[in-house]
Structure formats: C-alpha cells, structure tokens
Design a protein that fits this description.
Elements (H helix, E strand, L loop, with lengths): L1 E6 L2 E6 L3 E5 L8 E4 L2 E6 L2 E4 L8 E11 L3 E7 L4 E7 L2 E11 L6 H52 L2 H11 L9 H8 L1
Antiparallel strand pairs: 1-2, 1-5, 3-10, 4-7, 5-6, 7-10, 8-9
Helix pairs in contact: 2-3
Length: 191
C-alpha cells in the first residue's frame, strides 16, 4: 500500500515505515504529524484518486530530526568581464518516518451526487439565457440594417461625384493630404 501525499508544497510517494526528507516543518523532534492532503492511495491494486484530494484520507508520521541538506554550490561567471560569484546553500530539512496511511474507504461519489443537482439547475437556467441571446441579435440586425443601407447609399453618392467635388468635401471635413489622393482614397477617407 502506498500513497501520494502533498507535504510542505511537494508531492511524495510514501509507504508505511518509510523515511522521507521534506522541507522544514514546524514540529519538534519526536512529535507526530498528520498530512490530510492525500492525492492518491493504492491499496493492493485498488486505486483511489482524489479530486484533487481524497476526503477523509490521511498520512500519519513522526518527526525524527531537523537537519541541513548537502551543500549546493552556486557559481556564476561572465567570461572576459572579471565577474565571478560563488555561493553555497544548504536547505533546511526535516526527516520524518511514515507510521501509517489511513484510507477513508469512501470514494468521492458523494461529491459527484451533490454536484449533479447543481449541474441540472444550471442546465435549466441555460435555455432562458439562450432565448435572450437569440433575441438580441435580431434587434441588433434591425438597428444595423438602416445604418448599412445609409452607408451604401452614401457610397453610391460618393462614387457618382467628381474628384473635384470629393476634394471640396474632404476640405470641409478637415482631411489633410487630399491633393495627392486618388478618387478611391478620397471615398474611403470620407466614409
């Protein structure tokens, strides 16, 4: 039997009577600690996976000692620049021994049953929202249709005008650089 448990922000695969080095815990040597965030339990082929954690499951452990890990050398260098930095680091660790893995035995079916009525309620509300969404595009289409027609009529009028008339209209609107524009560019600028 093994479990995957989240201890101090890291995931560990643990078994009974196993010794594990974890990040420093706030417990004195000899104290018993319990980890409730169990992500997976394998009980001789019966695998129970949490979503994200298994409710009721726990891993009990005993703190053996607090210690420091091996020294890690951090060396930085930029060649031809005279830059070198050498630092060392020793991580603070806690050695724990896993006493037992407690499985709740209940699978997360209860959560699925509770979630099912909420999903049905959301499905019932969804058609109402869809009806509103369907009505909105029709109203928008009615509003946009006259504007689109007016733009088409205006573009037809602009197309029938001469270049001189278009330049005068552009001067009235304050558009700059019209002397070098072609008729198509003037029409686009006036739209």
């Amino acid at each position: 039997m093994y479990a995957i448990v989240d201890i101090a922000g890291q995931q560990f695969k643990v078994e009974k009577d196993q010794k594990v080095y974890v990040h420093r815990l706030d417990a004195e040597a000899g104290n018993k600690v319990q980890f409730d965030r169990v992500l997976l339990i394998d009980d001789n082929g019966n695998i129970n996976i949490g979503a994200p954690a298994i409710s009721g499951a726990a891993v009990n452990a005993t703190v053996l000692e607090h210690l420091k890990g091996e020294k890690v050398i951090v060396f930085k260098k930029k060649r031809r620049k005279g830059y070198k930095k050498k630092n060392g680091h020793r991580q603070y660790l806690t050695e724990i021994q896993i006493n037992d893995i407690v499985s709740s035995g209940a699978k997360p079916v209860a959560k699925a049953e509770k979630a099912a009525p909420k999903a049905e309620a959301k499905k019932e509300e969804a058609p109402k929202a869809e009806v509103k969404k369907e009505a909105a595009p029709k109203a928008e289409a009615k509003k946009e249709a006259p504007k689109a027609e007016a733009k088409k009529e205006a573009s037809k009028d602009l197309a029938s005008m001469t270049v001189a008339e278009l330049k005068e209209m552009a001067k009235d609107k304050g558009i700059s650089g019209i002397s070098s524009m072609k008729k198509a560019d003037l029409i686009d600028a006036l739209k």
